Amino acid sequence: MGDLGLGQEFHTWHQFSSFFDDWCEKHKVLFIIASLKPLISLRQNPLHYQPSLAATLRFRFVRLICKHSGTYVGQSTVQRNRLSEKIDCPASITLRLGLVVIEASLEHNHKLSEVEFAHYFKRHQLEASMGLPIRITNSVSKRFLAPDLIWNLEDYSKAKDKGMCELLSQLDGLFKSDPGAKVKLVFQEDVAVLNSIFLATSHMRGLVQRFPRCLYMDKAACVNSEFELYSVLCQDSNGRGRECAYCVARRGVPDLVIFIVASLVQSAPDIKLKVKCLTVGAGITDVDAVEEVLPCARVQICRLQVLEALYCKARELAVPKEDKVRNLLHNMANASSPRVYSQYLSDLEDLAPLPFLQYYLEHWHHNKGTWAECWAFERNRDCPFLEHMSFHQQKLRSALSPPLGLAACVRGLLELQALRVEMAALNEERVSELYRAVCPPDSAALIAEELGLAKHANYHVKEVPEGFLLDGGICSFLVSRDLATCSCSIYVSSRRPCRHLFATRLWTGQPLYDPGLLHSPSGSEGQDT
């Protein structure tokens, strides 16, 4: 049969899997895994050099056998070379440590039908999670996981797929600390290869439920050579972009945007009719079906990113009179009416060379309603998309250092969902200025001091029936549900906003500046002082 023989060596499991898929397609043969042994047992502590080696090679022994090994005639459609009741095809391939082929019996005692090969063959099966049966991965895909299902998946994965086991361990820890979290694991159908992870904690779901009007989505980071991170943000009452969903997806997965949006709506159903605008990055193009999931929403593409993409294309094509072309593009993007847009388009058609004009018409003109000013969701208003995404990516860089495994990526994303991370970026001086404008100097100084202390807060915030419990390890404080009072001695004695009120308001997205916080039971803040 050729192309695969004794002594042949492969340097990574991915290399062997890709080669083997091509080889099977070429020769129309079906193999299954008879047995395998992982390079590192999860029950033993690996040596310092082994984890990276295990990620590359994965197994120290693999035996592949023909699908018809031990198969009876009635179980599959084959034509045998010799008559017997049992097929017992002897074809097999064995690899040992270093992924070296030590056995290659490639002669089959039957011919495989084209129909059967087309029905059963699936690429990437060898790269699949060896511990998760296909019937399990098919059933869990595209629906939210239950905590007990995570435990079952862990049992299947143990000692077979270290990477999947570590990922499931992270998700198990998430559900133990946050039973209301929503997680999806999506596998390729009939192949236990993980395609994407959707993740929204209870806190993230709460934010999008409170602030659903405008959402922002873009590819936020590259996780590794195979996976990318997409983030969905909302804007809270303080004008800050807040994470409300993550999706770690394999490159090239189709219909990803609609999957993310649909999963977000499923995790927070109340937002379905409340989302009025979804702004996406210029690199996200498959947005046509979004309005079916968000029927009251307009989809728009970040205008500045569209212009940057057009400017880059003009440079790439060495467009003559590039400055004039850039000015026309800028004027089209910021046109005050469809008529003005059409006038500038006519000028572009006269000025731009045909290759650039074709690019523009094919990629951007047909969806001009999603990015040109005259069709904007809110005209004559700056879109905060770039500001929110830039701040979000800055936070990601502090927690994620690609390339990462999926478990490490999920762990880093969850670590970002902490009060200390949000407080670190607080501009307390801007809030203090607002209070100085309405407070006596002494009161304003005390409020500024509390804001400064809030920035260094390191509390765990938990929503309870009475309000929000801030646990600092040594002592805890209860902030009322309306975010107006606190059990701490500073608030009780002065009736002024304390660090705990500010921390909880920032965490939940409520305004840091609220004149209502200045009133005391006996009258105004001025009377109190």
Tell me what you see in this structure.
With 529 residues, the protein is an alpha+beta fold. The protein folds into 4 domains: 112 residues, no CATH class; 164 residues, ATPase, nucleotide binding domain (Nucleotidyltransferase, domain 5, 2-Layer Sandwich), CATH 3.30.420.40; 73 residues; 96 residues, no CATH class. Helices cover 41% and strands 18% of the residues. Helix 9 links the parallel strand 12 and strand 13. The longest helix has 16 residues. The C terminus is likely disordered. This is Zinc finger SWIM-type containing 9. It comes from Pelodiscus sinensis (Chinese softshell turtle). InterPro entries: DUF5575_C (IPR049218), DUF5575_N (IPR049217), Znf_SWIM (IPR007527), ZSWIM9 (IPR040854), ZSWIM9_RNaseH-like (IPR048315). GO terms for molecular function: zinc ion binding.
Just name the CATH architecture of the largest domain.
Answer: 2-Layer Sandwich
By oligomeric state, this entry counts as single chain
Helical/strand content category: alpha+beta
**Rg from C-alpha positions?**
29 Å
Unreliable stretches: 42-51, 72-84, 521-529
Largest sheet: spatial strand order: 7-8-11-10-9-12-13
Largest sheet: 7 strands, mixed
Average pLDDT, all residues: 87
Alpha-carbon distance between the termini? Answer: 93 Å
Number of strands: 16
Q: What is the count of structural domains? A: 4
What does the overall shape look like? flat
Fraction of residues in β-strands: 15-25%
> Helix amount, in percent?
40-55%
CATH structural class of the largest domain:
Alpha Beta
Number of H/I helices: 21
CATH fold-level label of the largest domain:
Nucleotidyltransferase, domain 5
CATH superfamily of the largest domain, please?
ATPase, nucleotide binding domain
